Amino acid sequence: MNPYQAPLAEMKFLLDKVFDAPQTWASLPAIAENVDMDTAVAIMDEAEKISRELLHPINRSGDEQGVVHQDDKVITPDGYKEAYTQYAEGGWVGLCGEPELGGMGMPKMLGVLVDEMAYSACNAFTLYGSLTAGAALCINAHGSDELKQKYLPMMYSGEWSGAMDMTEPQAGSDLRGIRTKAVPLDDGSYSITGSKIFITGGDHDLTENVIHLVLAKLPDSNGISLFLVPKIKVDDSGALGDSNNVTVGSIEHKMGLKASSTCVMNYDDAQGYLIGKANRGLVCMFTMMNYERLAIGIQGLGTSQAAYQMAADYAKERVQGVAAGGSPTGATSDPIIVHGDVRRMLLNIRVLTEAGRALSVLTGQQLDIAKYGEGEAQAKASRYVGLLTPVAKAFLSDRGLDAAITAQQVFGGHGYIRETGIEQLVRDTRIAQIYEGTNGIQAIDFLGRKVTGDNLAALTEFVNECTAKLSTLSHADAAHKAKVTELLQQLILVASEINDKKLEKPAVINACAVDFLDAFGHVLYGYFWLLMSDAAVPHSDKEFAVQKRYLSDFYINKMLPKAEYHLAQVRAGEATIMDIPESLF
Amino acid sequence: MNPYQAPLAEMKFLLDKVFDAPQTWASLPAIAENVDMDTAVAIMDEAEKISRELLHPINRSGDEQGVVHQDDKVITPDGYKEAYTQYAEGGWVGLCGEPELGGMGMPKMLGVLVDEMAYSACNAFTLYGSLTAGAALCINAHGSDELKQKYLPMMYSGEWSGAMDMTEPQAGSDLRGIRTKAVPLDDGSYSITGSKIFITGGDHDLTENVIHLVLAKLPDSNGISLFLVPKIKVDDSGALGDSNNVTVGSIEHKMGLKASSTCVMNYDDAQGYLIGKANRGLVCMFTMMNYERLAIGIQGLGTSQAAYQMAADYAKERVQGVAAGGSPTGATSDPIIVHGDVRRMLLNIRVLTEAGRALSVLTGQQLDIAKYGEGEAQAKASRYVGLLTPVAKAFLSDRGLDAAITAQQVFGGHGYIRETGIEQLVRDTRIAQIYEGTNGIQAIDFLGRKVTGDNLAALTEFVNECTAKLSTLSHADAAHKAKVTELLQQLILVASEINDKKLEKPAVINACAVDFLDAFGHVLYGYFWLLMSDAAVPHSDKEFAVQKRYLSDFYINKMLPKAEYHLAQVRAGEATIMDIPESLF
């Protein structure tokens, strides 16, 4: 099997030609001083090398060996510590962190592409750095200057890692029920006591300290607050001191991601520091959670790309049967890529992955404008980030599983054997639909808060912008433009029907949310395909433009009809779902 | 987690009320002398007990422990041998075998339900017996009387098991390239030499002999012949003799089905016996393969049912959040089954599983009439078996994976943990879409041979019969009947377009086959739902009829639109798939 090779040409095309990164960055002074396209290309080239040479080689072995919990220590598989050290020293953990605290100050629009490469190469490894970057983002946004100065440089440098501690056995999607307690101490810090489960990267041997962001309740309060709780105490000089009574109860044995530690964490009078305001912990945590939601979408996207490459390589090598109508080369057996069904499978993965990358880059761009921009541009980008984040998390991770399963099918019987490596992608990416809020929760957030919460204001604004943009495309097929434009309007109409109904039938949101998100995703991908095929026409590589046109036509003709299926499901409403008595289940 | 409980009421309803087993059996004298509804119910009750008490308890432990290859022996997990002995002694392996050779002579229409229970309880265990029954069926259909008398009683009794040896590393979906050789010996037997891979149940410690059905080529022939090759030689008295030079090269390490042995088998001058005519081995093997294809569909169906039960139980127990519009009981947290999205997931699994069971029973019924019937009834049933078998294999196994993944989603984070058991269903059932001919191969067989191979004669006959049946239903919703009737006609129209196009564009079959099969499956399930909801109206249990009507409405309103999506894909044709140059993949 060929090692993973990042699709650099696709990535540069999206940045430069489809979403005009140079113009975006020029409008954001804090970014413009750190990056231009040449710098971005150099960083992507280096990330491609790291993903192929450093991360991909430990992917299969890490799955076989897994994480071990032994003598109160969590030990990662062979090669993980060395790889993490090199990765951290390369500055990759702090890629998008603030330069004044040791980060590289790169835009998220570039960061999403680096993340994708890392996830393509090794899901399990990449989570450790992703959680660290997300925790750092939260501390930077809501922590005191003292906390920032003390913790962020060590996190951006990768010397310390981060973890997000929310779930308890009785409190998963519904965090109201958490029981972890925080008692104020005289010095302004807090004593934290309780247990958390499903803590990704909760402990490991990659770094000398783990910085936990822990949700807990203050005495006599039902509000939830957020605390920074280091595994090892840090003194005023920044040196590591005593253990902080943060211990690992056990690690989970999982379907996949076996090289990523998933811990039960126990806090027994551990010292913690309030982040943000008391009882406003969920708001603070959402800074990290939204970051991780995008990251987990990108986990799915990276899996899709890796799956595509493996399946396409196999389909070009594996010889079986002859083409319908006779072998093109006169051979007695052809590579299976001659078969329509194999091509169909590969094209399904391919068009969803390339459009998925566009979603990832657009979301990264809006995050940058929301963080570094000003005025109405900044406010609008914030609205778009709200709208796009749950879609990126759910739609990209759903497509990630689809891609892995479809690619596995291309391998036939060999796809079920561990040795081939493709079945690991299925097992590893399955969790992406579940953690950081299940995809059902994402859809309810999308339809209930982001779409109908403001009476369709943000959705309408976004759809109108897409529609206007489509009308400016000079190379795209007119019928295809009309089709996508009509479906964009259908989204507004259907959302409006839901919005009108929700007071009388509040269950309609929950019952129809997943189909609405899927409809939105499929229409959005149609929009992206027209953007991409149009932008490719003036490309210096003529074959590149031809390819994008083929893929765009495939998407519009073959996959876009799925949007109408999901819209039909939404229109069919909640009645047949909610009316059936519970006893009949 | 509750143990698996077979849905006996559903099963009896299908047999008795929907497909009128008593009338079918009365028309088949060879069956009528062995079974009536009372006998069938007694057998199902016993199968329910066996599946719950004997098979389900070794499902999780077998996955954890797996099969081991050690000192040239293949050792199954703890408890497998004891369970297999008890299962065989109960007569379950020979349930549908001929009474004069030690079988129980039961109809397949009942056998499919027993198979479903066993697969629900334990996928891996059930394969051993299923392959034995399939091999016995093939020997019975094509073997000499001597082979039948010598091998079948020991196989029906479960004392010897069976295996199907087709695949070689270079020859999977395309068997033309097999290299295993068969050289005639003076005594009329053959010397078999070669290697086979992916041999399910190729070796194990459950039985004292394994009877291999091996595809091989005679000298100077490109034709493929079928041979019976026992692991241990059997002398004229039926006693076991020397080793037959049939050895295990290795076992595969797989994504799932870890308690099912998947062997590389080596034949080194092993003694074999021709089954059927020389160079006609594929025809003979297809008797077994068609049997296994239905069985593997039922593996998917059994998984769907098990997944539904686990998810529904969990959804009624797990408390998280409150219902939209307020808790129905005034609680601060409700069981998650109050949430529309959780109900949507459960209903998706439920309606596809119940309709899938109808497909399984209908196919079993047609197999019985094809085997035991006479005249035109027999001939028509043979045509329907040809039509339905690839659909049952592919559509049931595809829905099996969907069901397992959806059920896992209901479990949230707990679904990713091995302990819960739901992730095992995903891993175990994934192979069902691949082995016994990938689902792509099934679809090409369906559209290329079964549908267009006779210029739509069998499809039209079947569709007309369904349409006529629909018109007789007095309780079903008129609009729903009209919708399904129209879609049945759409299937004919679309198939006709493909049929007209295939000479000019032969790739159209391969490129559109999967979508055509999926369209057919979704329409067929709509037909089944109307049959079931109609047949339930006079049911003595009024709640049963109410439930079927809810489920039927859900299916027609929410899932049937997917047929239109797949029809749109077929109509979009092969051009966008085939035109793109291979170099662009």
From TrEMBL, chains A, B:
Pfam families named among the record's database cross-references: Acyl-CoA_dh_1, Acyl-CoA_dh_C, Acyl-CoA_dh_M, Acyl-CoA_dh_N
Domain Acyl-CoA oxidase/dehydrogenase middle stretches: 163-269
Record-annotated Acyl-CoA dehydrogenase/oxidase N-terminal domain positions: 44-159
Superkingdom of origin organism: Bacteria
Extent of the signal sequence: none
Cofactor field: FAD
Keyword Oxidoreductase: yes
Acetyl-CoA dehydrogenase-like C-terminal domain location: 476-581
Keyword NADP set for record: no
UniProt family annotation: Belongs to the acyl-CoA dehydrogenase family.
Protein name from the UniProt record: Acyl-CoA dehydrogenase
